[in-house]
């Protein structure tokens, strides 16, 4: 299966265009996060950036916003196809959130908690398994045990997007190890914080998409 690719943390139209031209399936912008990151943009900017994406490219709003009401407000303002939520919530709360918003819900889970994915399977629309910072934020540029994530995802119905420290150089090994539905990258294709490196974006997308997975045997 061809792996889907999301390029995340876009702050400029020209980087968004680069990602789209490179063949990215999804593009992500980050707003309303209580952590320091060069990739955060104001909410109205997030709306403008995502509105500039062409048809057939999935738009993703990444947030750590607190509370269903605030998240609902963000979705109404930004109108993303997908809401990527980095935060807490039990299955009932996430189910309520899904019912409140018009976007699909991509729930970010730390790799150390990947064994809990089955609890939310069928409740949320998809998972993103990341290597989070201690404050819960993403964009750490740190990898995790891809094989363990692959094992934790194998029997799930919901698609799993692999994230955390991916780069053009390691994305093929990551796909071999975790067999994800999609891969996601933010800092691994940057020239500087919040600024994408066009060559790295093109290389990441091309390598991820043309790669035919070989199973890793241990
Ligand atoms: O990227 C950030 O700075 C960020 C901050 C707070 C919450 C989420 C964030 N990023 C979400 C993503 O989807 C990133 O692409 C993902 O964490 C992978 O990042 P990286 O390891 O830099 O590729």
TrEMBL record:
Pathway: Amino-acid biosynthesis; L-tryptophan biosynthesis; L-tryptophan from chorismate: step 3/5. It is an enzyme of class 5 (isomerase). Transmembrane segments: none annotated. The keyword Amino-acid biosynthesis applies. Pfam families: PRAI. HAMAP family: PRAI. Residues 5-206 form the N-(5'phosphoribosyl) anthranilate isomerase (PRAI) domain. Gene3D superfamilies: Aldolase class I (3.20.20.70). The gene is trpF. The lineage of its organism: Archaea, Methanobacteriati, Methanobacteriota, Stenosarchaea group, Halobacteria. Its EC number is 5.3.1.24. Keywords: Amino-acid biosynthesis, Aromatic amino acid biosynthesis, Isomerase, Tryptophan biosynthesis. CDD domains: PRAI. It comes from the Archaea. One of its GO terms (biological process) is L-tryptophan biosynthetic process. Belongs to the TrpF family. It catalyses: N-(5-phospho-beta-D-ribosyl)anthranilate = 1-(2-carboxyphenylamino)-1-deoxy-D-ribulose 5-phosphate. This is N-(5'-phosphoribosyl)anthranilate isomerase. GO terms for molecular function: phosphoribosylanthranilate isomerase activity. InterPro entries: Aldolase_TIM, PRAI_dom, RibuloseP-bd_barrel, TrpF_fam.
């Amino acid at each position: 299966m061809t792996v889907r690719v999301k390029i995340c943390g876009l702050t400029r139209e020209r980087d968004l265009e680069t990602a789209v031209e490179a063949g990215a399936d999804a593009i992500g912008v980050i707003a309303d996060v209580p952590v320091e990151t060069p990739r955060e943009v104001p909410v109205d900017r997030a709306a403008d950036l995502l509105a500039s994406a062409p048809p057939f490219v999935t738009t993703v709003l990444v947030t750590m916003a607190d509370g269903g009401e605030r998240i609902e407000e963000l979705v109404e303002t930004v109108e993303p196809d997908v809401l990527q939520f980095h935060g807490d919530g039990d299955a009932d709360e996430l189910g309520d959130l899904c019912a409140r918003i018009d976007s699909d819900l991509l729930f970010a889970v730390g790799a150390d908690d990947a064994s809990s994915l089955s609890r939310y399977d069928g409740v949320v629309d998809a998972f993103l398994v990341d290597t989070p910072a201690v404050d819960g934020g993403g964009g750490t540029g740190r990898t995790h045990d891809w094989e363990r994530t692959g094992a934790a995802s194998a029997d799930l119905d919901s698609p799993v997007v692999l994230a955390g420290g991916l780069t053009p150089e390691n994305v093929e090994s990551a796909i071999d190890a975790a067999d994800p539905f999609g891969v996601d990258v933010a800092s691994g294709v940057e020239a500087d914080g919040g600024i994408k490196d066009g060559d790295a974006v093109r290389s990441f997308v091309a390598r991820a998409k043309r790669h035919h997975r070989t199973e890793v045997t241990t």
